[in-house]
Design brief:
Elements: H1 2-25, H2 29-33, H3 52-86
Pfam families: Pet100 (PF09803)
InterPro entries: Pet100
GO molecular function: unfolded protein binding
Length: 87
């Protein structure tokens, strides 16, 4: 006797559950669940160089940055060595 009632219940769940979800969330999902300014704007992202000149300029910029950081690190190490030797 429980078989037909269970089948009717399962059929009702299969039909009513998706309809209930669609009714609860509605059709305007972007308006309800979107986060403003989540994705960065194109000017805030990295621009990949494709031309030979752009690649060369980017490599020169990275090399200069790396050398500046290296020089700063060496100065800091020399200063730390001076403090250790002076103490």
């Amino acid at each position: 006797m429980a078989g037909p009632n269970l089948e009717v219940f399962k059929f009702g769940m299969y039909i009513l559950f998706p309809i209930g979800i669609m009714y609860y969330f509605g059709t305007n999902l972007d308006g309800k669940f979107s986060v403003p300014d989540f994705w960065p704007k194109p000017e805030q992202t990295h621009k990949i160089p494709f031309d030979r000149d752009e690649i060369k300029n980017e490599l020169e910029r990275l090399r200069a940055k790396r050398l500046a950081l290296r020089e700063k690190r060496l100065e800091e190490e020399a200063r730390m060595q001076g403090r250790e030797n002076g103490s």
